[in-house]
Each structure stands twice: as C-alpha cells, then as structure tokens.
Amino acid sequence: MEVSVKGEYALRAVFDLACHQQEQPIKIAKIAERQQIPQKFLELILSQLKQGGFLSSRRGAEGGYFLARPAESITIGDILRHIDGPIAPARRLQQDDLPEDSPFPELWEKVERALSSVLDRMSFADLVVRWKENRAKRVVNWQI
C-alpha cells in the first residue's frame, strides 16, 4: 500500500485536531506549523475533509477547524479512503496477466482485507492515547 503525500498530511491534520479537540477551533496556520505541512496545501486538504463530513469550521477571529464528530468514530481507513481512494496493495497484476490457477489473486485479497481491518479498527482517539502514552514514557526524570 502506498499512501500519497496528501493522504499522509490529511492523517496528520486530523490527528492534530483530535489532540486538541477540547480547545477552540484550530486555525490552519497552527495545524500547518505543528504538523509541518505547507499551509496552502493544507487548506485544500481540510476543505476536502470538510466536504467528506469529517471536519467542521467556524469563520471569524475565533474561527478555525474542528472535528465534525468524535475522534472515536473516525478511523485511519476512513480518511485514507476519502483522500486516496480504495485501500489495496501497491501493485496488483490484472487477472488477465496471470495463469488461470495462480494463487496470487487470493493472496492479494487476503492482504487487502488484513490491511483494511487494521486501518478500520484504529481510530484517531486510539492514536491520541498511544501518542500520549509514548510521550509519557519518554519523559526523563532527573530526580535524585
């Protein structure tokens, strides 16, 4: 599976919003800065995610973007499919290019199902929890 740059940036943007969902709407510039995403490109991605029903926005001085629904209900698979299309192994031979008794179509179908299963079970809330746990493990305690 190959995730596009746009798909990667979309995941990072939704992750950022999930991390800060208790705050006021988040400005594009803030997300771009924290996630190191070019702001103009991020604007296009956020617009596409808003059209997909994943994000909402508020205009004005206190405006910005926020999750349209709980982070628990948005999965990695949801975002990747919306941005990049169907999830599949990077390259698949066409049925016509294979011998009639080839075992590979069945293998690639299993790989596709397994990949989809992992991505569809992992919500952004899960990612935030894992990220916070990993950050807590890396905190150095200098107390003697």
Write the layout of secondary structure elements.
Layout lengths: L4 H15 L8 H8 L3 H13 L3 E4 L5 E4 L8 H9 L19 H18 L2 H14 L7
Antiparallel strand pairs: 1-2
Helix pairs in contact: 1-2, 1-3, 1-4, 1-6
Query: What gyration radius follows from the Cα positions, in whole Å?
Result: 19 Å
Shape: globular
How can the largest sheet be summarized? Answer: 2 strands, antiparallel
Poorly predicted regions are none
Strand line-up of the largest beta sheet: 1-2
Number of β-strand runs: 2
What is the percentage of strand-forming residues? 5-15%
- Which CATH top level class fits? Mainly Alpha
CATH architecture: Orthogonal Bundle
Distance between termini?
Answer: 48 Å
Task: Tally the structural domains.
Answer: 1
CATH topology name, in short, is: Arc Repressor Mutant, subunit A
Instruction: Classify the secondary structure makeup into a structural class.
Output: mainly alpha
What is the tally of helical segments?
A: 6
CATH superfamily: Winged helix-like DNA-binding domain superfamily/Winged helix DNA-binding domain
Order of helices and strands: HHHEEHHH
The whole-number mean of residue pLDDT values reads 89
Residue share in helix: 40-55%
